[in-house]
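Researcher: Please generate the 3D structure of the following complex. Treat every line as part of one assembly.
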Amino acid sequence: MTSPESVTPPPQAGLAIVARGVGKTFGTGAERVEALRGIDLSITPGEFISLIGPSGCGKSTLLRLIGDLTQPTSGTLEVNDKNPHQARLDRDYGMVFQKATLLDWRTVAKNVELPLEVMGFNSSDRATRAAEMLDLVELGRFRDHYPWQLSGGMQQRVAIARALAFRPSLLLMDEPFGALDEMTRELMQQEVLRIWTETDLTIVFVTHSIPEAVFLSNRVLVMSRRPGQIADVIETGLPQPRDEDTRESPDYYAKITEVREALRRLDRDVLET
Amino acid sequence: MTDSSTAQHINDQGQTNWYTRLDPRVRRVVAFLGVLATLVLLWELYKVVAKALDVTSPVRPDNRTMPHSWDIIWALFQPVRRGGELLIVTLTKASLFTLGEALLGFVIGAVVGFTLGVLFVRSELAERAFMPYVVASQTVPILAIAPMVVIWGAQLGMGQQLRVGLIAAYITFFPVAINTLRGLRSPDPTAMELMRSYAASGRAVLWKLQVPSALPYIFTALKVSATASVVGAIIGELPTGTRSGLGRALLDFSQQFGARPEKLYAAVLMSALAGILFVGLITLLEHRVVHAARRQPA
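Model: Done. Output below.
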Protein backbone atom coordinates (compact mmCIF):
# COMPACT_ATOMS: atom_id res chain seq x y z
CA MET A 1 0.00 0.00 0.00
CA THR A 2 1.25 3.45 -0.79
CA SER A 3 -1.60 5.43 0.69
CA PRO A 4 -0.54 8.30 3.03
CA GLU A 5 -1.81 6.35 6.04
CA SER A 6 0.92 3.76 5.64
CA VAL A 7 3.62 6.42 6.08
CA THR A 8 2.57 7.29 9.62
CA PRO A 9 3.57 4.72 12.24
CA PRO A 10 0.83 2.29 13.23
CA PRO A 11 -0.85 3.04 16.56
CA GLN A 12 1.10 1.42 19.36
CA ALA A 13 -1.14 -0.19 21.91
CA GLY A 14 -0.38 -0.01 25.59
CA LEU A 15 1.19 3.44 25.70
CA ALA A 16 -0.06 6.00 28.19
CA ILE A 17 0.35 9.04 25.96
CA VAL A 18 1.23 9.30 22.28
CA ALA A 19 1.52 12.58 20.36
CA ARG A 20 2.09 12.72 16.61
CA GLY A 21 2.88 16.04 15.00
CA VAL A 22 0.80 17.96 17.51
CA GLY A 23 0.59 21.71 16.92
CA LYS A 24 -1.42 24.44 18.58
CA THR A 25 -2.09 27.93 17.27
CA PHE A 26 -4.04 30.55 19.19
CA GLY A 27 -5.91 33.43 17.54
CA THR A 28 -5.98 34.54 13.92
CA GLY A 29 -4.52 37.32 11.80
CA ALA A 30 -2.18 39.71 13.56
CA GLU A 31 -2.91 38.09 16.92
CA ARG A 32 -2.03 34.62 15.67
CA VAL A 33 0.38 32.87 18.01
CA GLU A 34 1.86 29.50 17.22
CA ALA A 35 2.35 27.96 20.65
CA LEU A 36 3.38 24.43 19.70
CA ARG A 37 4.72 22.84 16.54
CA GLY A 38 5.28 19.23 15.54
CA ILE A 39 5.28 17.61 18.96
CA ASP A 40 6.04 13.89 18.84
CA LEU A 41 6.26 11.93 22.03
CA SER A 42 5.36 8.65 23.60
CA ILE A 43 5.08 8.00 27.29
CA THR A 44 4.85 4.51 28.72
CA PRO A 45 2.57 3.68 31.65
CA GLY A 46 4.19 4.33 35.00
CA GLU A 47 6.68 6.87 33.66
CA PHE A 48 7.43 10.16 35.38
CA ILE A 49 7.98 12.80 32.70
CA SER A 50 8.88 16.44 33.23
CA LEU A 51 8.33 19.21 30.72
CA ILE A 52 10.81 22.03 31.13
CA GLY A 53 11.53 25.12 29.07
CA PRO A 54 11.60 28.90 29.04
CA SER A 55 8.37 30.67 29.95
CA GLY A 56 5.96 30.86 27.06
CA CYS A 57 7.36 27.72 25.44
CA GLY A 58 3.97 26.04 25.53
CA LYS A 59 4.73 23.40 28.15
CA SER A 60 1.48 24.16 29.99
CA THR A 61 -0.37 24.20 26.68
CA LEU A 62 0.99 20.73 25.91
CA LEU A 63 -0.21 19.51 29.30
CA ARG A 64 -3.64 21.05 28.68
CA LEU A 65 -3.79 19.36 25.26
CA ILE A 66 -3.04 16.00 26.85
CA GLY A 67 -5.75 16.68 29.45
CA ASP A 68 -8.33 17.77 26.85
CA LEU A 69 -8.69 21.22 28.36
CA THR A 70 -7.90 22.54 24.89
CA GLN A 71 -7.68 20.89 21.47
CA PRO A 72 -4.74 20.69 19.02
CA THR A 73 -4.92 22.58 15.74
CA SER A 74 -2.87 19.86 14.03
CA GLY A 75 -1.66 16.34 14.70
CA THR A 76 -3.17 13.70 16.93
CA LEU A 77 -2.98 12.74 20.57
CA GLU A 78 -3.81 9.42 22.16
CA VAL A 79 -4.21 8.74 25.83
CA ASN A 80 -4.58 5.14 26.97
CA ASP A 81 -5.29 4.25 23.30
CA LYS A 82 -8.19 6.73 23.18
CA ASN A 83 -8.52 10.29 22.09
CA PRO A 84 -8.06 12.75 24.99
CA HIS A 85 -11.75 13.64 25.00
CA GLN A 86 -12.77 10.04 25.59
CA ALA A 87 -10.01 9.68 28.19
CA ARG A 88 -11.43 12.69 30.04
CA LEU A 89 -14.94 11.26 29.91
CA ASP A 90 -13.48 8.00 31.26
CA ARG A 91 -11.94 9.99 34.13
CA ASP A 92 -8.38 8.97 33.28
CA TYR A 93 -6.89 12.29 34.44
CA GLY A 94 -6.11 13.70 37.82
CA MET A 95 -4.99 17.31 37.61
CA VAL A 96 -3.04 19.54 39.97
CA PHE A 97 -2.42 23.19 39.16
CA GLN A 98 -0.11 25.81 40.61
CA LYS A 99 -3.04 27.12 42.64
CA ALA A 100 -4.50 24.46 44.92
CA THR A 101 -8.01 25.76 44.06
CA LEU A 102 -9.70 24.16 47.04
CA LEU A 103 -13.33 25.14 47.62
CA ASP A 104 -13.17 27.23 50.77
CA TRP A 105 -16.71 26.37 51.93
CA ARG A 106 -15.80 22.68 52.10
CA THR A 107 -13.68 20.97 54.70
CA VAL A 108 -10.48 19.21 53.64
CA ALA A 109 -12.28 15.85 53.50
CA LYS A 110 -15.22 17.30 51.56
CA ASN A 111 -12.81 18.83 49.07
CA VAL A 112 -11.25 15.43 48.46
CA GLU A 113 -14.76 14.02 48.04
CA LEU A 114 -15.73 16.61 45.41
CA PRO A 115 -14.74 14.59 42.33
CA LEU A 116 -16.34 11.50 43.88
CA GLU A 117 -19.63 13.37 44.37
CA VAL A 118 -19.51 14.55 40.77
CA MET A 119 -18.88 10.99 39.65
CA GLY A 120 -21.77 9.59 41.68
CA PHE A 121 -19.95 7.57 44.33
CA ASN A 122 -22.15 6.82 47.34
CA SER A 123 -21.42 8.58 50.61
CA SER A 124 -19.75 5.68 52.43
CA ASP A 125 -17.42 5.02 49.47
CA ARG A 126 -16.65 8.72 49.35
CA ALA A 127 -15.76 8.87 53.02
CA THR A 128 -13.57 5.76 52.78
CA ARG A 129 -11.73 7.02 49.72
CA ALA A 130 -11.24 10.49 51.18
CA ALA A 131 -9.80 9.05 54.39
CA GLU A 132 -7.52 6.78 52.36
CA MET A 133 -6.28 9.66 50.21
CA LEU A 134 -5.72 11.97 53.16
CA ASP A 135 -3.66 9.24 54.80
CA LEU A 136 -1.67 8.94 51.57
CA VAL A 137 -0.75 12.64 51.71
CA GLU A 138 -0.40 12.42 55.53
CA LEU A 139 -3.15 14.91 56.30
CA GLY A 140 -5.60 12.58 58.03
CA ARG A 141 -5.60 14.75 61.15
CA PHE A 142 -6.77 17.77 59.16
CA ARG A 143 -9.85 16.22 57.58
CA ASP A 144 -12.26 18.62 59.29
CA HIS A 145 -10.18 21.76 58.79
CA TYR A 146 -11.06 24.38 56.23
CA PRO A 147 -8.62 25.14 53.40
CA TRP A 148 -7.77 28.61 54.71
CA GLN A 149 -6.56 27.04 57.95
CA LEU A 150 -3.81 25.16 56.07
CA SER A 151 -0.39 26.25 54.81
CA GLY A 152 0.29 26.47 51.08
CA GLY A 153 2.11 23.13 51.05
CA MET A 154 -0.71 21.39 52.92
CA GLN A 155 -3.28 22.87 50.54
CA GLN A 156 -1.33 21.49 47.62
CA ARG A 157 -1.25 18.05 49.29
CA VAL A 158 -5.04 18.19 49.61
CA ALA A 159 -5.18 19.06 45.90
CA ILE A 160 -3.09 15.97 45.15
CA ALA A 161 -5.34 13.81 47.36
CA ARG A 162 -8.36 15.20 45.51
CA ALA A 163 -6.78 14.50 42.11
CA LEU A 164 -6.09 10.89 43.08
CA ALA A 165 -9.39 10.18 44.87
CA PHE A 166 -11.04 8.62 41.83
CA ARG A 167 -7.90 6.60 40.95
CA PRO A 168 -7.03 8.10 37.58
CA SER A 169 -4.22 6.43 35.65
CA LEU A 170 -2.58 9.76 34.77
CA LEU A 171 -1.60 12.64 36.99
CA LEU A 172 -1.05 15.91 35.15
CA MET A 173 0.73 18.53 37.26
CA ASP A 174 1.20 22.12 36.09
CA GLU A 175 3.94 23.79 38.16
CA PRO A 176 2.28 22.45 41.30
CA PHE A 177 5.03 23.63 43.65
CA GLY A 178 5.76 26.92 41.90
CA ALA A 179 4.24 29.00 44.69
CA LEU A 180 5.94 27.16 47.57
CA ASP A 181 9.14 28.04 49.41
CA GLU A 182 12.24 25.97 48.70
CA MET A 183 12.08 23.83 51.86
CA THR A 184 8.42 22.94 51.39
CA ARG A 185 9.07 22.38 47.74
CA GLU A 186 11.70 19.72 48.41
CA LEU A 187 9.43 17.97 50.91
CA MET A 188 6.61 17.98 48.38
CA GLN A 189 8.89 16.51 45.71
CA GLN A 190 9.75 13.70 48.09
CA GLU A 191 6.05 13.24 48.79
CA VAL A 192 5.11 13.03 45.12
CA LEU A 193 7.87 10.50 44.46
CA ARG A 194 6.65 8.39 47.36
CA ILE A 195 3.06 8.49 46.05
CA TRP A 196 4.30 7.67 42.56
CA THR A 197 6.19 4.60 43.77
CA GLU A 198 3.25 3.46 45.92
CA THR A 199 0.85 3.65 42.95
CA ASP A 200 1.15 2.82 39.26
CA LEU A 201 0.54 6.40 38.15
CA THR A 202 1.91 7.96 35.02
CA ILE A 203 2.89 11.53 35.87
CA VAL A 204 3.45 14.43 33.51
CA PHE A 205 4.96 17.31 35.42
CA VAL A 206 5.43 20.85 34.12
CA THR A 207 8.11 22.88 35.87
CA HIS A 208 10.68 25.56 35.26
CA SER A 209 13.00 24.29 37.97
CA ILE A 210 15.86 22.23 36.56
CA PRO A 211 16.73 20.41 39.85
CA GLU A 212 13.05 19.60 40.37
CA ALA A 213 12.74 18.08 36.90
CA VAL A 214 15.90 16.01 37.32
CA PHE A 215 15.09 14.85 40.84
CA LEU A 216 11.58 13.67 39.96
CA SER A 217 11.65 12.30 36.45
CA ASN A 218 12.61 9.28 34.41
CA ARG A 219 12.84 11.58 31.41
CA VAL A 220 13.06 15.35 31.09
CA LEU A 221 11.64 16.85 27.90
CA VAL A 222 13.36 20.16 27.15
CA MET A 223 11.17 22.46 25.11
CA SER A 224 12.28 25.30 22.87
CA ARG A 225 10.96 28.84 22.76
CA ARG A 226 7.80 29.63 20.82
CA PRO A 227 6.71 27.85 18.80
CA GLY A 228 7.39 25.14 21.36
CA GLN A 229 9.08 22.03 20.08
CA ILE A 230 10.76 19.21 21.93
CA ALA A 231 14.43 20.19 21.66
CA ASP A 232 15.95 17.48 23.82
CA VAL A 233 15.01 14.38 25.76
CA ILE A 234 17.22 13.62 28.73
CA GLU A 235 17.03 10.30 30.59
CA THR A 236 17.93 10.99 34.19
CA GLY A 237 18.83 7.37 34.98
CA LEU A 238 19.09 8.14 38.71
CA PRO A 239 18.41 5.10 40.92
CA GLN A 240 15.20 4.71 42.92
CA PRO A 241 14.33 5.42 45.66
CA ARG A 242 15.50 9.00 45.44
CA ASP A 243 16.03 10.90 48.64
CA GLU A 244 18.21 13.55 50.26
CA ASP A 245 21.33 11.58 49.30
CA THR A 246 20.28 11.71 45.67
CA ARG A 247 20.34 15.50 45.89
CA GLU A 248 24.01 15.35 46.83
CA SER A 249 25.16 12.71 44.34
CA PRO A 250 27.51 13.58 41.44
CA ASP A 251 25.14 11.89 38.96
CA TYR A 252 22.37 14.26 40.02
CA TYR A 253 24.60 17.28 39.44
CA ALA A 254 25.75 15.89 36.11
CA LYS A 255 22.15 15.57 34.95
CA ILE A 256 21.29 19.07 36.16
CA THR A 257 24.22 20.36 34.13
CA GLU A 258 23.05 18.39 31.12
CA VAL A 259 19.54 19.89 31.28
CA ARG A 260 20.93 23.35 31.90
CA GLU A 261 23.20 23.08 28.86
CA ALA A 262 20.27 21.89 26.75
CA LEU A 263 18.34 24.99 27.83
CA ARG A 264 21.37 27.22 27.14
CA ARG A 265 21.68 25.78 23.64
CA LEU A 266 18.17 27.10 22.98
CA ASP A 267 19.30 30.64 23.82
CA ARG A 268 22.40 30.26 21.66
CA ASP A 269 20.20 29.15 18.76
CA VAL A 270 18.00 32.18 19.31
CA LEU A 271 20.99 34.54 19.35
CA GLU A 272 22.44 33.00 16.19
CA THR A 273 19.26 33.31 14.16
CA MET B 1 -7.42 34.75 56.95
CA THR B 2 -8.45 35.15 60.54
CA ASP B 3 -11.83 34.54 62.07
CA SER B 4 -13.87 37.67 61.43
CA SER B 5 -15.29 37.85 64.96
CA THR B 6 -11.89 37.89 66.62
CA ALA B 7 -10.63 40.44 64.12
CA GLN B 8 -13.44 42.80 65.18
CA HIS B 9 -12.31 42.69 68.79
CA ILE B 10 -9.20 44.64 67.99
CA ASN B 11 -9.16 48.15 66.60
CA ASP B 12 -6.65 49.59 64.12
CA GLN B 13 -3.99 50.15 66.74
CA GLY B 14 -4.36 46.58 67.94
CA GLN B 15 -5.62 47.86 71.30
CA THR B 16 -8.78 46.98 73.13
CA ASN B 17 -11.16 49.41 74.83
CA TRP B 18 -14.50 49.14 76.64
CA TYR B 19 -16.35 48.95 73.31
CA THR B 20 -14.22 46.25 71.67
CA ARG B 21 -14.43 44.15 74.84
CA LEU B 22 -18.23 43.92 74.57
CA ASP B 23 -19.98 40.88 73.19
CA PRO B 24 -20.47 41.43 69.42
CA ARG B 25 -24.26 41.32 69.77
CA VAL B 26 -24.27 43.85 72.61
CA ARG B 27 -21.88 45.98 70.58
CA ARG B 28 -24.33 46.02 67.70
CA VAL B 29 -27.15 47.24 69.95
CA VAL B 30 -24.89 49.87 71.54
CA ALA B 31 -23.88 51.14 68.11
CA PHE B 32 -27.50 51.27 66.93
CA LEU B 33 -28.68 53.18 70.02
CA GLY B 34 -25.68 55.50 69.80
CA VAL B 35 -26.48 56.49 66.24
CA LEU B 36 -30.18 56.87 67.06
CA ALA B 37 -29.41 59.15 70.03
CA THR B 38 -27.07 61.22 67.85
CA LEU B 39 -29.75 61.66 65.18
CA VAL B 40 -32.36 62.73 67.74
CA LEU B 41 -29.85 65.13 69.28
CA LEU B 42 -29.01 66.68 65.89
CA TRP B 43 -32.75 67.05 65.11
CA GLU B 44 -33.46 68.86 68.37
CA LEU B 45 -30.23 70.88 68.17
CA TYR B 46 -31.18 72.13 64.71
CA LYS B 47 -34.58 73.24 66.04
CA VAL B 48 -33.00 75.19 68.92
CA VAL B 49 -30.18 76.78 66.92
CA ALA B 50 -32.33 77.62 63.87
CA LYS B 51 -34.99 79.20 66.08
CA ALA B 52 -32.39 81.28 67.95
CA LEU B 53 -30.76 82.49 64.74
CA ASP B 54 -34.13 82.92 62.99
CA VAL B 55 -33.12 80.52 60.19
CA THR B 56 -35.96 79.28 57.93
CA SER B 57 -33.97 77.49 55.24
CA PRO B 58 -33.67 74.62 54.35
CA VAL B 59 -36.35 73.67 56.89
CA ARG B 60 -38.39 75.85 59.23
CA PRO B 61 -37.65 74.82 62.82
CA ASP B 62 -41.27 75.24 63.98
CA ASN B 63 -43.30 72.34 65.41
CA ARG B 64 -45.56 72.18 62.34
CA THR B 65 -42.64 71.32 60.04
CA MET B 66 -40.32 69.58 62.48
CA PRO B 67 -42.23 68.19 65.43
CA HIS B 68 -40.20 67.34 68.53
CA SER B 69 -38.86 63.79 68.48
CA TRP B 70 -40.76 63.03 71.70
CA ASP B 71 -43.97 64.30 70.11
CA ILE B 72 -43.52 61.80 67.30
CA ILE B 73 -43.10 58.96 69.79
CA TRP B 74 -46.01 60.38 71.85
CA ALA B 75 -48.23 60.40 68.76
CA LEU B 76 -47.69 56.67 68.36
CA PHE B 77 -49.50 56.10 71.65
CA GLN B 78 -52.46 58.37 70.90
CA PRO B 79 -55.72 57.11 69.37
CA VAL B 80 -55.88 57.63 65.59
CA ARG B 81 -59.29 59.19 65.98
CA ARG B 82 -61.45 59.83 69.02
CA GLY B 83 -62.19 56.49 70.67
CA GLY B 84 -60.22 54.59 67.99
CA GLU B 85 -57.21 52.30 68.35
CA LEU B 86 -53.75 53.66 69.09
CA LEU B 87 -51.69 54.91 66.14
CA ILE B 88 -48.97 52.35 66.87
CA VAL B 89 -51.52 49.53 66.64
CA THR B 90 -52.83 50.83 63.30
CA LEU B 91 -49.31 51.26 61.97
CA THR B 92 -48.15 47.86 63.21
CA LYS B 93 -51.10 46.19 61.49
CA ALA B 94 -50.40 48.18 58.33
CA SER B 95 -46.69 47.31 58.51
CA LEU B 96 -47.37 43.60 58.87
CA PHE B 97 -49.83 43.72 55.99
CA THR B 98 -47.32 45.53 53.78
CA LEU B 99 -44.51 43.20 54.87
CA GLY B 100 -46.67 40.29 53.73
CA GLU B 101 -47.03 41.80 50.28
CA ALA B 102 -43.33 42.69 50.26
CA LEU B 103 -42.37 39.12 51.21
CA LEU B 104 -44.51 37.75 48.38
CA GLY B 105 -42.88 40.16 45.94
CA PHE B 106 -39.45 39.42 47.35
CA VAL B 107 -39.86 35.67 46.89
CA ILE B 108 -41.23 36.02 43.34
CA GLY B 109 -38.47 38.51 42.49
CA ALA B 110 -35.72 36.34 44.01
CA VAL B 111 -36.87 33.20 42.16
CA VAL B 112 -37.22 35.05 38.84
CA GLY B 113 -33.88 36.83 39.36
CA PHE B 114 -32.02 33.64 40.28
CA THR B 115 -33.55 31.78 37.33
CA LEU B 116 -32.52 34.56 34.93
CA GLY B 117 -28.98 34.52 36.37
CA VAL B 118 -28.71 30.77 35.82
CA LEU B 119 -30.20 31.05 32.33
CA PHE B 120 -27.77 33.81 31.36
CA VAL B 121 -24.71 32.01 32.69
CA ARG B 122 -25.67 28.83 30.82
CA SER B 123 -26.53 30.55 27.53
CA GLU B 124 -24.68 33.52 26.15
CA LEU B 125 -27.37 33.77 23.49
CA ALA B 126 -30.07 34.15 26.13
CA GLU B 127 -27.99 36.80 27.90
CA ARG B 128 -27.47 38.78 24.69
CA ALA B 129 -31.13 38.47 23.74
CA PHE B 130 -32.75 39.28 27.08
CA MET B 131 -30.27 41.37 29.07
CA PRO B 132 -31.17 44.65 27.27
CA TYR B 133 -34.82 44.15 28.24
CA VAL B 134 -33.91 43.31 31.81
CA VAL B 135 -31.93 46.56 32.05
CA ALA B 136 -34.62 48.54 30.22
CA SER B 137 -37.25 47.23 32.63
CA GLN B 138 -35.53 49.10 35.46
CA THR B 139 -35.40 52.43 33.65
CA VAL B 140 -39.18 52.46 33.24
CA PRO B 141 -40.63 54.15 36.34
CA ILE B 142 -42.50 51.76 38.58
CA LEU B 143 -45.36 54.29 38.71
CA ALA B 144 -45.91 53.68 34.97
CA ILE B 145 -45.81 49.89 35.32
CA ALA B 146 -47.99 49.68 38.41
CA PRO B 147 -51.35 50.67 36.79
CA MET B 148 -50.79 48.09 34.03
CA VAL B 149 -50.14 45.36 36.56
CA VAL B 150 -53.23 46.48 38.47
CA ILE B 151 -55.52 46.34 35.45
CA TRP B 152 -54.05 43.25 33.75
CA GLY B 153 -53.81 41.45 37.06
CA ALA B 154 -57.45 42.18 37.82
CA GLN B 155 -58.46 40.90 34.38
CA LEU B 156 -56.53 37.70 35.10
CA GLY B 157 -58.41 37.37 38.37
CA MET B 158 -55.44 38.02 40.65
CA GLY B 159 -56.04 39.11 44.20
CA GLN B 160 -55.00 42.53 45.40
CA GLN B 161 -52.07 41.23 47.44
CA LEU B 162 -50.68 39.23 44.53
CA ARG B 163 -50.89 42.30 42.29
CA VAL B 164 -49.02 44.41 44.84
CA GLY B 165 -46.52 41.56 45.22
CA LEU B 166 -45.92 41.53 41.48
CA ILE B 167 -45.19 45.26 41.52
CA ALA B 168 -42.68 44.70 44.32
CA ALA B 169 -41.19 41.73 42.41
CA TYR B 170 -40.72 43.96 39.37
CA ILE B 171 -38.21 46.02 41.38
CA THR B 172 -36.59 43.19 43.29
CA PHE B 173 -35.77 40.66 40.55
CA PHE B 174 -33.19 42.95 38.96
CA PRO B 175 -30.47 43.11 41.64
CA VAL B 176 -30.85 39.37 42.21
CA ALA B 177 -30.48 38.58 38.50
CA ILE B 178 -27.40 40.79 38.07
CA ASN B 179 -25.66 39.59 41.22
CA THR B 180 -26.52 35.94 40.65
CA LEU B 181 -24.99 36.17 37.18
CA ARG B 182 -21.88 37.83 38.54
CA GLY B 183 -21.62 35.31 41.38
CA LEU B 184 -22.06 32.31 39.07
CA ARG B 185 -19.19 33.68 36.99
CA SER B 186 -17.00 34.26 40.06
CA PRO B 187 -15.32 30.82 40.40
CA ASP B 188 -11.64 30.72 39.53
CA PRO B 189 -11.15 29.51 35.91
CA THR B 190 -8.90 26.80 37.36
CA ALA B 191 -11.82 25.51 39.45
CA MET B 192 -13.96 25.35 36.31
CA GLU B 193 -11.19 23.38 34.55
CA LEU B 194 -10.97 21.06 37.51
CA MET B 195 -14.68 20.30 37.16
CA ARG B 196 -14.11 19.80 33.46
CA SER B 197 -11.36 17.28 34.22
CA TYR B 198 -13.93 15.31 36.25
CA ALA B 199 -16.18 15.34 33.16
CA ALA B 200 -18.76 17.01 35.41
CA SER B 201 -22.21 17.71 33.98
CA GLY B 202 -23.43 21.29 33.65
CA ARG B 203 -25.77 20.65 36.54
CA ALA B 204 -22.96 19.40 38.79
CA VAL B 205 -20.81 22.42 37.96
CA LEU B 206 -23.75 24.69 38.73
CA TRP B 207 -24.72 23.20 42.09
CA LYS B 208 -21.32 22.11 43.40
CA LEU B 209 -19.21 25.05 42.27
CA GLN B 210 -21.08 28.01 40.81
CA VAL B 211 -24.03 28.39 43.18
CA PRO B 212 -21.95 28.02 46.37
CA SER B 213 -19.49 30.57 44.95
CA ALA B 214 -22.39 32.89 44.12
CA LEU B 215 -24.04 32.79 47.57
CA PRO B 216 -22.26 35.84 49.03
CA TYR B 217 -23.21 37.82 45.91
CA ILE B 218 -26.78 36.58 46.02
CA PHE B 219 -27.19 37.53 49.67
CA THR B 220 -25.88 41.02 48.98
CA ALA B 221 -28.59 41.31 46.32
CA LEU B 222 -31.25 39.86 48.62
CA LYS B 223 -30.57 42.58 51.19
CA VAL B 224 -31.00 45.24 48.52
CA SER B 225 -34.14 43.45 47.34
CA ALA B 226 -35.58 43.19 50.84
CA THR B 227 -35.67 46.96 51.29
CA ALA B 228 -36.71 47.53 47.68
CA SER B 229 -39.59 45.09 48.09
CA VAL B 230 -41.00 47.12 51.01
CA VAL B 231 -40.79 50.29 48.93
CA GLY B 232 -42.28 48.41 45.96
CA ALA B 233 -45.17 47.13 48.06
CA ILE B 234 -45.91 50.60 49.46
CA ILE B 235 -45.92 52.08 45.95
CA GLY B 236 -47.95 49.15 44.65
CA GLU B 237 -50.64 49.76 47.28
CA LEU B 238 -51.44 53.20 45.86
CA PRO B 239 -52.77 52.34 42.36
CA THR B 240 -54.34 49.10 43.60
CA GLY B 241 -56.28 51.11 46.17
CA THR B 242 -55.12 48.76 48.94
CA ARG B 243 -56.56 50.14 52.19
CA SER B 244 -54.84 48.06 54.85
CA GLY B 245 -51.16 48.76 54.20
CA LEU B 246 -48.53 51.38 54.96
CA GLY B 247 -49.03 52.99 51.53
CA ARG B 248 -52.54 54.10 52.44
CA ALA B 249 -51.41 55.25 55.90
CA LEU B 250 -48.60 57.32 54.43
CA LEU B 251 -51.01 58.85 51.90
CA ASP B 252 -53.63 59.69 54.56
CA PHE B 253 -51.12 61.16 56.99
CA SER B 254 -49.38 63.24 54.34
CA GLN B 255 -52.76 64.85 53.65
CA GLN B 256 -53.03 65.62 57.38
CA PHE B 257 -49.43 66.86 57.49
CA GLY B 258 -50.42 70.50 57.94
CA ALA B 259 -52.39 69.76 61.09
CA ARG B 260 -50.70 66.67 62.55
CA PRO B 261 -47.17 66.35 61.12
CA GLU B 262 -46.02 63.90 63.80
CA LYS B 263 -48.41 61.23 62.43
CA LEU B 264 -46.60 61.17 59.08
CA TYR B 265 -43.24 61.05 60.79
CA ALA B 266 -44.47 58.17 62.92
CA ALA B 267 -45.62 56.32 59.80
CA VAL B 268 -42.23 56.92 58.13
CA LEU B 269 -40.55 55.55 61.24
CA MET B 270 -42.64 52.38 61.10
CA SER B 271 -41.93 51.91 57.37
CA ALA B 272 -38.21 52.14 58.11
CA LEU B 273 -38.58 49.62 60.96
CA ALA B 274 -40.37 47.22 58.61
CA GLY B 275 -37.45 47.43 56.18
CA ILE B 276 -34.88 46.94 58.95
CA LEU B 277 -36.78 43.91 60.22
CA PHE B 278 -36.81 42.36 56.76
CA VAL B 279 -33.09 42.97 56.12
CA GLY B 280 -32.37 41.59 59.60
CA LEU B 281 -34.16 38.35 58.73
CA ILE B 282 -32.16 37.99 55.51
CA THR B 283 -28.93 38.60 57.42
CA LEU B 284 -29.85 35.87 59.91
CA LEU B 285 -30.49 33.49 57.04
CA GLU B 286 -27.20 34.49 55.44
CA HIS B 287 -25.29 33.69 58.63
CA ARG B 288 -26.82 30.24 58.64
CA VAL B 289 -26.20 29.51 54.96
CA VAL B 290 -22.89 31.17 54.14
CA HIS B 291 -19.78 30.12 56.01
CA ALA B 292 -18.31 32.95 58.07
CA ALA B 293 -15.10 32.97 56.06
CA ARG B 294 -16.92 33.72 52.86
CA ARG B 295 -19.54 36.24 53.89
CA GLN B 296 -17.95 39.04 51.88
CA PRO B 297 -17.50 38.64 48.11
CA ALA B 298 -13.79 38.61 47.37
